[in-house]
């Protein structure tokens, strides 16, 4: 099994979407460019969602227009419906992402529709993307628990993941949206999904609310996952998951992977500089343990 792990950097999207203070487009562009400058292969640059629902992502077209696209880095954006897809295509997105959930209540709160209605919105996106040569990633939220329903049946996670994969998503990102998972549960969930969707097409997207994300990722790496979603300085949180903190910090993931003899192609020292810079821009404490330990 390969020792290389692909890091999907979430900072400019999942990381910023919940920030209450307005962040100007220039700062977002600088963040994306600094992140790609660290060698990150995948920097989620924004979301073409309703600005009434998530005001912070309103400037995503400006971000896509202003970034300097680096060879070797992809800049996916979220697209909940065809309106978002059309705008993402116009902005030159090479990858878009649809996002569903394994929990009905979360689907309603996050996207104002049921899980089934969500699939009806995704179908034309996948059809259009095929014609346009755009890749589609699929997110599944609440794979280890829901802020409204509590426990979520693994069978539902498997069903939603398989359906997204069968529709044509090239990769399914399994989201522990509120960070409640523990390693045994994360491993069992991943194993179940991998019985229906190839492991090579799965990613782990763990928020660190309960401090379990690294342990959960370690268990999933042992199972064979090789794509990890994370956010510089651990920025972020979902606006429709009260109390949920950011994604696991990218620096902490890379430090762990390097210790395990695994490679990412990302320059950790440079990334820590980006983490210090964005934390100071946002007036936040550094959210990565590794960066904190190496900052005076
Ligand atoms: P709705 O209100 O049901 O949509 O929202 P609608 O079709 O009835 O339209 C209402 C208004 O929104 C209209 O404007 C539309 O034009 C506009 P009006 O006529 O009232 O002026 N609209 C849009 N504007 C811009 N871009 C669009 C768009 N679509 C409609 N694409 C909708 C439904 C899905 C749009 C809304 O609920 C929404 O935008 N939700 C997004 C929520 C979101 O972004 N959540 C965070 C990302 S998901 C996440 O963080 C989880 C993840 O990280 C994984 C994990 O951690 O689990 C991925
Ligand atoms: Mg998330």
What does this structure look like?
- With 296 residues, the chain is of the alpha/beta class.
- It has a single domain, classed as TIM Barrel (Alpha-Beta Barrel), CATH 3.20.20.
- 43% of the residues lie in helices and 13% in strands.
- The protein contains 12 helices and 9 strands.
- A 9-stranded parallel β-sheet has the order 2-1-9-8-7-6-5-4-3.
- Helix 2 (25-36) runs antiparallel to helix 11 and helix 7 (154-167) crosses helix 8.
- It binds 3-hydroxy-3-methylglutaryl-coenzyme A (HMG) and magnesium ion.
- 3-hydroxy-3-methylglutaryl-coenzyme A is lined by residues 14, 17, 47-50, 52-54, 78, 80-81, 83-84, 99, 110-112, 139, 141, 175, 177, 205, 207, 238-240.
What would you give as the CATH superfamily?
Aldolase class I
Overall 3D shape = globular
Helical residue percent?
Answer: 40-55%
Distinct small molecules:
3-hydroxy-3-methylglutaryl-coenzyme A, magnesium ion
The secondary-structure class comes to alpha/beta
Strand order of the largest sheet: 2-1-9-8-7-6-5-4-3
Strand content range: 5-15%
The whole-angstrom Rg is: 17 Å
Put the structure in a nutshell.
The chain has helices at 11-15, 25-36, 60-66, 82-90, 104-111, 115-132, 154-167, 183-194, 213-223, 250-259, 268-282, 289-293, and strands at residues 6-9, 42-43, 46-47, 77-78, 95-101, 135-141, 171-176, 202-206, 227-230. It is an alpha/beta fold and 296 residues long. Helix 8 (183-194) packs parallel to helix 9 (213-223) and helix 10 (250-259) packs antiparallel against helix 11.
List the helices and strands and how they pair.
Elements: E1 6-9, H1 11-15, H2 25-36, E2 42-43, E3 46-47, H3 60-66, E4 77-78, H4 82-90, E5 95-101, H5 104-111, H6 115-132, E6 135-141, H7 154-167, E7 171-176, H8 183-194, E8 202-206, H9 213-223, E9 227-230, H10 250-259, H11 268-282, H12 289-293
Parallel strand pairs: 1-2, 1-9, 3-4, 4-5, 5-6, 6-7, 7-8, 8-9
Helix pairs in contact: 2-3, 2-11, 7-8, 8-9, 10-11
The protein binds 3-hydroxy-3-methylglutaryl-coenzyme A (HMG) and magnesium ion.
